[in-house]
Structures are given as C-alpha cells and as structure tokens.
Write a structure and sequence with these properties.
Chain lengths: ~850, ~140
C-alpha cells in the first residue's frame, strides 16, 4: 500500500504522471454539499480517486431547497433531482443508496454500513447533513407528527393534505413558513405556532416580520405568536388530533409539522471520536481538526464556531474542499456572509448581514406600509453591514455585494436607500431594474452567475425559457429565489453593450488570484531578491493555469509590470490589445483611425495643411472633429499607418491607448472676457507633462479658465477650474456609461502645484488601480478620503508620487516619430501578398 | 444543434475542400517573420485574406482572417494557448479548428499549413474566392 501523507499542508505537489493504484475516497452522505464537492473534484482531478458514496435516503442527490415548491405543487420530485443515478455510473462512483454508515475504524481506515458492507479509504469525506430538532413533548411520537427535512416528509405531507383538513406548523422560521404555505396551497387549514413575537426573527427585524405576517394572513394562514406548545393530543386510532398550548388552549390538527430548527448530524463523527461542538469542528481546509484524513462539508460542519444551513456558503465549502482533495492545496475557506430570501411565490423578502444593528450602528429606514414596502439598511463605520428588505428586493443583491466587499458607502450614503439605479447611472433610466444592474453583478448567489453570463447565454444560445437558462448557466437552478430577476433578464435582453467593469474576485479564469493579489505579488521581490519583470515570469511564479494566459489577463499583467517597474520590466507587444500594438484605433471594417495630438486643443495652419495633404494622398474617407478637441482621420489602411504618421509630423494622440488621451481646454484669459486664468496654457503644460503616460484605463483631463467651466472639467478624470485666486482640482469624474460628477480634491495657487497634485493623483491611480478600472471606480473603491490623505495631506508622499510619474514617462518615446525606439513590430505594416 | 461545433481535426484538409482542387503549396514567409503569440495577414487578389498564427511553442496555424461573429480580422487579435481573441468583440476562436469557444458558436474556415526549411507554406488551392465584385480578378488560381 502506498502511504499518503496525512496533512495537505505538508504534502508534495500532485504529480500528474503518477501511476499505480488510485487512492480511495469514501463519502458518507449524499446531499447537495457532498455531491457538489465531488462535482468540483471530478472537474479538477477526474482520475485521482476511486469514489464510494453512501446515502441514507433511497434517492440520488436532489435539490433539498426545492422541497417547498414540490410541496406547493409547483414542481415534481423528478424535477428536483440534481444527479440521476446515471451521473454516478458515468463517473465510476460506487453508489450505496439506503445505506447508513454506522461505524468508521480510523486506525484501519475502513467504514462499515448498516448492511455490513465494508469499504476502505485513504480519505474520508463526511457530509452527513443535519437532523431536524423535534420538541421533546408528550405525543411527539404520534402518527401524523413529522419534521420537514426530506422527500419522505414531503410525501407524507402531500398525502396528508389529500385526506385531512387541519394542519399545525410549529415554528415560524424560513422552513416552517414554506411548509405552511405549501400545505395551504394543497387545501389545508394551516395554523403556525411561533414562540417569538415576530416571524423569522433570525432573518427579519420586527417591522418586516409583522408585515410578512400580515400578508400571509391575507393569504389565509393563521398565526399564534408568542405561543409555547405543551403537548400533542392523540385522537382515534392513535393519530394526532390537536395541539395543546401552554395556556391550555387547543388547536385542531390532523398533521403536525415541527420546523423549529436543525442541528448538525454528528452521530457518526462522535462515534468515530472526532472533536464535535454543535458540528464537526474543521479548519480552513475543511479537515477535521482531529484527523486530517477526514474532511467534512455542509450542515454537519462547525467552522470557526459557525454552522451554516444555507446553500451558498455550503457550496463555497465544497469548492475549497474539492481543491484540497484534488491536492491543489490552494483553497482556504474563511467563512461566509449569508443572505436569505423566502421562497414563497409572490412575497419578496430579503435580508443579509447584521440587519438587526446595535448601539454602535446607524439605521436608514424606509417604511411605506400602504405600498407594502419596508427597507432597513444598517451602517457601521461608513460601511453597510446589513440589509433587511420587504416588498421590494430588487436591490438585494447589490446591498449584499456592498456588505461583502465592506467598502465605504460614505459617498453614496444619501442615495443608498434608493438602490443602485439611482447611483449616477444615466443611459439606463426608464428601463426595468434588472437591466440597470452591471454585468458583473451577481444575479444567482447560489451558483455565482452574473448578469453578463446570463445575458450572453440568452443572446448567443437563443434561450427562451427559464428552464433553458437554468440548464445553460445554472442561474436560479438552486434555491430559485432569483427567478424573478432571471425572467426580467429574459424579457429585456437586447443591446449587446460589452463593458469591462473591474472584476471583483479572480482576475480571470486563468487564476484564483485577484487584481490586488497580482499587483502586490509583482511589487514584492522574490525570496532571492529578484523581481518579476516579464509576463511569463509572473505566470510561472503565480501558478497560472494557462501558461500563455488569456486575452484578458495578459494585457493587465503587462500593464502592472510596466507601471510597477518602469524602465526595468520587459514590455510585451503581443500582450497588448491591437490598438496599442499598431498605435491606432481598429475600426469595425479592420481599418484604423489616426488622431494626432493637438496640445490643449490648439492647432495652426501648418498642421491643418499637413492633415489635409495626408487625407488627400491616402484617400482617407472620413475626417471628424472629436469630443476631445482633436481631429480624427478614419478609415486608414494599416499598411499606410507609418507613412501617415511621418507625413503628419505630429505626435501621437494616444487615442488608441489606455493612457492619457486629451486635455480639453477653453480659451481662457488670453481671449475670453470672463477668463480668470490662462487655461489653454495650463492644459498644454499638463498635456506635455503627462502625455505618454500609460494607465489602467484611458485618462481624460480638462482645464477651464473660470467657473463657467466651458471645458466640462466636472466630468473628467482630472478636471481643473481656474478661479481668481488659483485653481480648483477635481478628480474621478466620468462622462461615459456611468456619468459621474468629479469630486473636489484641493485648491491650489500656482500652475506648478496643479501639475504636482494632478500628477500625484494619477500616479496613485497608475500604481494601485486595477486594469480597465476608470478613476471613478478606483476612487469609489478606495474612497476619496484615502486619496486626499496620500495626495493632499502628505506632502512628502505627493512629491514622491509625482517624481515616480516623471521618472516613468521621462524616457518614453513618441511611438509615431520613433517607432523603432518604441519597440513597435514594424513587420505588421507590411502586407504579405501571394 | 446550436452548441455543436463543426470540428475538423488538424492536418486533415480544410473545411471547404472536397478534394476537387490539387494542392498548390506556396511559400508565404519565413516562420521567424511571424511573432510568437502573434500573426501575419496573407493577401491574395480575389481571395479572402488569410491569417497565419504562430503559437508560443512554435506551432503554426492558418485561418481565413474573418471572425465568424462580425468578420473582424483575427490576425490582429491576442493569441494565447491554441486560441485567438477577436479584436472587435473578444470572441475566442480556436486556432486549430477556426471555431468559436462556447457559449459563442460559428467557425471560420481553416487552411493547411506546412513548414519547409523554415518557410511557412500554404496551399493556394485552399484560399476562399471572394464573390465577384468590381474589379476582383477571378482567374483560375494557380
């Protein structure tokens, strides 16, 4: 037998070419978390293990969350099966259904099932789920008294609804209300008994709980709040007939469903001698602290003191556990923020994070009982920590992402309550709110499916039905509570605007590292003192999955290298988008556009004459004045580009690059009767200081000579406005998809200070912005206060930033007049003809 | 049907060829003239331009230089692994088969390539004639 090391942490890396007997993985429990772990594992390492699965229920893995729709008659048991038996067979999994594992010999590494089957293991995965909590009261053993946990309970309830009239559900939590709703839809008279004074007290605050109760009462449910169940009374034939409360009153009941909670099923784990404490205690790699050969996921687990019962965190555990089992050894589970939605059709309810608040937090509340809308946002230290929404939950996923990201909401606090569509998004107005979501926003929290993925699937695959979307994207295929949003997207999908917003998590599919992780890895010298200076070196050092990356990470890495180690890092033209490789803008027909630089928007007769001559000579079809006060020559053949550049005799306008584009100016005090400052001169000075400056995204500046602001400084990355006593500097404005007014940074007296402050701000953005993140998003992410602290309040840091920027651009050549020195591959302009 | 991709294994003739034309191998350029992880565009009057790609490991591929999506010039895209990203809308096209990666679908024709003494050779018989237009010559090829 080959001996495997006992801890993932000290294990050697997986050897792909390894032969010999496969390791044995035994999974106890056949539910959603466990099988999801196997799915992830099979994707990562399909041949690593011989897998055996024991399931106590006679069914293959099904979607336990959808038992409520089955009970309500909206779906069938067949429809909620996630992995049919054929799936197990296809993956060579030895499946034992209806078999409970009763003992594990950890010394011999053997599990034994109740039918005597014994299977040896190298690694054991416990996914034993949870038990429903049953009240220890008289009559609890009577016929007609059940929990609500599995297919069998659901079938019992469906059968009872066909024969009996009165049902009592004990417990007004998520599960109890879903059970009550289902039984009511099947025609029963249902009373919910709840110990607390309002419903779903773990997910809702008292106001929302009372609103929920009112709307459920309107649908026909009865409630006994603040009531304690004392006993269950037997009727004829030993079946339950009534529930007796502590005050002595009785409620008729032919069926009693106890839905007061669950507790982790640790029966087997305790018998094995594993450390348990309201769950199997595991570390961040999801290994049992007692025995590193034993992994555990799901509701049976206690991770950092928390036991989760919702699907999203359990799937996160599955993902991490699978990477560990696959011997990638990279994943760590650090706990989850959870959000809740009630799956009762027609009732919109959402809560996330710490929605109760406390003495150290503030609340923003909107309450409109007549319209059935209630929203509460809880804020602590300028961060959104919780949200509780009733009646209008469209912004739930946005609030949840703010809670998870933990970023400052100080700047948007005034508008926070009105949702994402009110945060400066023009161009989306009047449409449904699902449309106003950004493409990167998560629609399906269970499976992590973004709006962009859903829309592209709908468009490219020609999907028409909810079922199609579920099959292709998995969106709304788990808990189904985002179904409404997915349907809205189905209805409205059109207009294929492709926008590359900053990624929130992994940079791309080539890695699990975020933009921040990669930037800091590039910034940090290696152990031997050397530095990462080329794209392949980064890929190798950071374990990229694809050795040549992809079209989204290569340009990003190339930029990070050049901006972090100017004059040292190796530029890779093949890792730049075609526009930056050809130094012109590709057009839809494969021709290019050429925009020469016009300093501060000023030109002269000689330049205009040369432009006219070039247009004639190269038969350039379109000449257009741009929004940035320059002239655009459109429809230039690629082979003509070098000749066009040299005959223009003007510097590159970098209109094709993630770099400084234009500095727009008004005429200023030289001509204008209102002008207070020479804005044209200021703009030209800025442009000459900053041109050739590459950045995470395009950068646009403007300088106005008086507060009339004719150069539109208020919507630029850096906007400067002259006043009588000096200059005001504004940053992080945007005139594009997301119109955003620039924020005031500082007021200075001299034009030299304008250069230093503007340059320092842009260098901060260059060093810490994520690739394809505009300044507006960068400042929203780090906060304007953090920017002020480093650019305004700290003169030494400001000077250092400004010096680093000058160092970076100082020797950067003009690609148009010095193409060879700029490293342009000139072969691309030569046609090969045959 | 929508997700099916018509795949032609490398080295087994172009998608279009039904064996009617005899191979006409023609040297195009030295392999060194194509940047690694890059491409060159080969033009022939009356025929659709061809993109010749060179992967990181030196493998060379040829496709009609036209993205199946909106006709973008694939030769201008970023090459990674065995794929190229179209410069217009970022579709990912396989170098070996010319087909778009899921969830997109559609293919551009591929051409055989061979290397002789460091020269990249294409089979002129596999070039795709352009529809007769203005002055385009539609002569008998080679």
């Amino acid at each position: 037998m080959n001996d495997i090391p006992v801890s993932a942490a000290i294990e050697p890396a997986a050897r792909p070419g390894r032969t010999g007997p496969r390791q044995r993985l035994v999974m106890v429990g056949n539910g959603m978390a466990g099988v999801r772990t196997l799915e992830e594992l099979l994707r990562l390492a399909p041949d690593l293990y011989d897998i055996t699965v024991f399931g106590a229920e006679p069914h293959p893995n099904y979607n336990r969350i959808l038992l409520s729709p089955v009970l309500a008659g909206e779906q069938t048991v067949e429809q909620i099966v996630l992995n049919p038996r054929a799936w197990y067979a296809e993956h060579g999994i030895d499946l034992h259904l209806g078999r409970t594992v009763v003992a594990v010999d950890r010394a011999r590494r053997v599990v034994r099932a109740d039918d005597g089957t014994e299977v040896g293991y190298d690694r054991l995965l416990l996914a034993t789920g949870s038990h429903p909590v049953m009240l220890p009261i008289a009559g609890a053993e009577l016929e007609g008294v059940i929990a609500y946990r599995d297919i069998k309970d659901t079938e019992t309830m469906i059968a009872a609804a066909a024969r009996y009239r009165n049902a009592v559900v004990i417990g007004g939590g998520l599960l109890g209300l879903e059970a009550a709703n289902g039984l009511m839809l099947r025609g029963m008279q249902v009373t919910v008994i709840h110990l607390m004074s309002h419903l779903m007290e773990r997910q809702l605050d008292p106001t929302a709980g009372r609103m929920l109760q009112a709307s459920l009462e309107a649908r026909g449910l009865a409630f006994r709040m603040g009531a304690r169940t004392q006993a269950l009374i037997a009727g004829d034939g030993g079946r339950v007939s009534a529930v007796e409360l502590a005050d002595g009153s009785r409620i008729a009941a032919d069926l009693v469903v106890m839905a007061i909670g669950i507790r982790a099923n640790t029966d087997l784990a305790q018998a094995m001698g594993l450390h348990c404490q309201r769950g199997i205690v595991v570390n961040d790699t999801l290994q049992a602290v007692t025995d590193p050969r034993v992994y555990a996921v799901g509701e049976c687990v206690n991770h950092r003191g928390t036991t989760y019962g919702l699907v999203a965190p359990l799937f996160e555990q599955s993902k991490v556990c699978a990477t560990q089992l696959a011997r990638f050894g990279i994943g760590r589970y650090a706990g989850s923020q959870v959000s809740t939605k009630l799956k009762v059709t027609g009732i919109d309810l959402f809560s996330a994070g710490d929605f109760q608040g406390g003495p150290d937090s503030e609340e923003i509340v909107l309450s409109d009982p007549a319209a059935g809308i209630y929203k509460k946002l809880v804020i602590r230290d300028d961060r959104l920590v919780g949200a509780c929404l009733y009646g209008d939950t469209v912004d739930g996923s946005w609030y949840f992402s703010l809670v998870r990201e933990g970023r400052s909401v100080a700047a948007i606090r005034d508008h926070l309550m009105f949702g994402q569509s009110h945060i400066g998004d023009t161009g989306h107005e009047g449409k449904s709110r699902a449309q106003a979501m950004a493409d990167t926003d998560e629609v399906c929290g269970c499976n992590g499916v973004s709006k962009g993925r859903i829309c592209s699937a709908i468009k490219e695959k020609g999907l028409f039905t909810l079922e199609d979307v579920r099959r292709h994207t998995k969106a709304s295929a788990s808990c189904g509570s985002c179904t409404g949003l997915v349907e809205q997207l189905l209805m409205f999908t059109a207009g294929g605007d492709y926008s590359a917003a900053p990624a929130k998590k992994a940079m791309c599919g080539c890695t699990d590292l975020s933009h921040d992780d990669v930037r800091s890895a590039i910034r940090t010298p290696l152990a031997d003192g050397s530095r990462l200076l080329s794209v392949p070196a980064v890929y190798q050092a950071l374990g990229w999955r694809n050795p040549t990356g992809c079209a989204s990470c290569r340009p990003a890495i190339n930029y990070y290298l050049l901006s972090t180690w100017p004059r040292e890092a190796v530029d890779d033209p093949q890792s730049r988008f075609i526009n930056e490789r050809a130094h012109a803008n590709i057009q839809k027909d494969g021709t290019y556009s050429v925009i020469p630089r016009m300093w501060g928007g000023e030109t002269n007769a000689s330049e205009l004459r040369r432009i006219a001559d070039v247009v004639d000579k190269y038969r350039i079809p379109t000449v257009k004045v741009t929004g940035g006060q320059r002239i655009d020559l459109l429809g230039v053949k690629k082979a003509d580009l070098p000749k066009v550049w040299s005959e223009l005799g003007m510097a590159s306008g970098h209109a094709y690059a993630k770099a400084l584009r234009t500095v727009k100016t008004c005429v200023g005090s030289e001509w204008c009767r209102f002008g207070t400052q020479d804005s044209t001169r200021m703009g030209q000075d800025l442009e000459r200081a900053l041109w050739r400056m590459y950045a995470p995204h395009k950068v646009k500046l403007a300088v106005s000579g008086c507060p009339r602001n004719c150069a539109e400084s208020g919507i630029k990355d850096v906007g400067v406005i002259g006043v009588d006593s000096g200059w005001e500097i504004y940053v992080a404005g945007n005139g594009g998809i997301k119109t955003e007014v620039a924020q005031f940074l500082v007021k200075v007296a001299s034009s030299a200070q304008v250069l230093e402050y503007a340059g320092a701000f842009l260098q901060l953005y260059r060093e810490e912005g994520w690739y394809l993140e505009r300044t507006v998003h960068f400042v929203a992410r780090v906060g304007i206060d953090a920017v002020r602290k480093r650019v305004v309040d700290d003169p030494a840091n400001r000077a250092a930033l400004w010096a680093r920027l000058q160092f970076a651009v100082d020797q950067e050549p003009d690609p148009w007049s010095e193409p060879a020195r700029a490293g342009i591959d000139l072969r691309q302009f030569e046609n090969i003809s045959v | 049907m929508i997700h099916e991709q018509q795949q032609t294994p490398t080295g087994q003739g172009p998608a279009a060829a039904a064996g009617q034309a005899r191979a006409a191998w023609h040297s195009v350029c030295p392999v060194e003239a194509i940047p690694r992880l890059g491409a060159r565009r080969v033009e022939r009057a009356g025929f659709a331009p061809v993109a010749v790609f060179r992967a990181d490991d030196g493998a060379v591929f040829a496709l009609v230089d036209r993205c199946p999506h909106k006709g973008g010039p694939l030769s201008q895209g970023i090459v990674f692994g065995r794929s190229v990203a179209c410069p217009l809308h970022n579709w990912t096209i396989g170098l070996a088969d010319g087909c778009a990666a899921a969830p997109d679908s559609g293919c551009t024709p591929r051409l055989d390539v061979r290397l002789e003494n460091g020269m990249v050779q294409l089979d002129l018989a596999q070039f795709e004639p352009l529809p007769v237009a203005s002055e385009a010559a539609t002569g008998p090829g080679a």
